[in-house]
Amino acid sequence: MAELKESTVSSKKVYDGSFLDVRKDIVNLPDGNTSTREWINHPGAACIIPIMSDGRLALIKQYRYPVKSIMIELPAGKLDEGEKPESCALRELEEEIGYLAEKLTFVSKIHPAIGFANEEMWIFLAERLIESQKRTDHDEFVELMPTSIEDAVRMVWNGKITDVKTIIGILWVERLLS
Amino acid sequence: MAELKESTVSSKKVYDGSFLDVRKDIVNLPDGNTSTREWINHPGAACIIPIMSDGRLALIKQYRYPVKSIMIELPAGKLDEGEKPESCALRELEEEIGYLAEKLTFVSKIHPAIGFANEEMWIFLAERLIESQKRTDHDEFVELMPTSIEDAVRMVWNGKITDVKTIIGILWVERLLS
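The joint structure predicted for all components is written out below.
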């Protein structure tokens, strides 16, 4: 196999935002030359496929500022420092749509943006949901959109759903539960 | 429907790298409060599903510095300024694996990282490939990995392929060609 690996010569934080941590590294390329790599240091994220008591998916609608659009999504969120993906999944499920899950099953791990971020995302199936007594996160402007698995799959293939974690989660749940 | 939209109060470029363009905006939230949004201004990208003459997919192996791993991927790349997605797809196909495509078909548009980037990615099916006379891009360290559609689909479900564009492209080609 060809040598493909790049090794780090130096690494510098070039922007330290409240949300984004941007790095610029010097790397050695496989042919001995050097190059620069700019990338986002991301804490990782959890994405939840919530199955409601009537079998529908708890999709959400949410405005996503970077793409300036209301997106149809599965609930998801970033890991807090030191937080396990499972704990993050349960926390985000409660914060975003106000449900607890009695059963949480790991489905898959994906990489959303390997060109410019080290983000890993863990996908979980959440079943046996019960309504939480706690208020949901006041910072989240989210609209619940219960959708049958069949309709969700249709929205993947007809291009209504374009968010990658949501596409992959829906095709996973079709495979697991249909 | 609940009001979900956020409107821009101000926008500032906070890091202007050779590769990453980072913005920090002040926004008005639906409830009248203000908040900040940090995001990557991305030119967009094209991803190609190349079908070789024997019916196999031209997957590639490539070292991805942000995730510090050799990833199994479909060829893809960023749009040059003013470049159409179709042109980008054909250019990247030739640069990365040395093929021209006589037939290029738009498949779908996806959003890889809506939490922190405005990236849109156009996926194309590339058929009737012919070898290019031009040398491939010297900056690309890429290993060709011809793979049957069946094996590629297996690697999606068993977790060997974790890159989102590649997962979605493979499940599309399974649907279109199997």
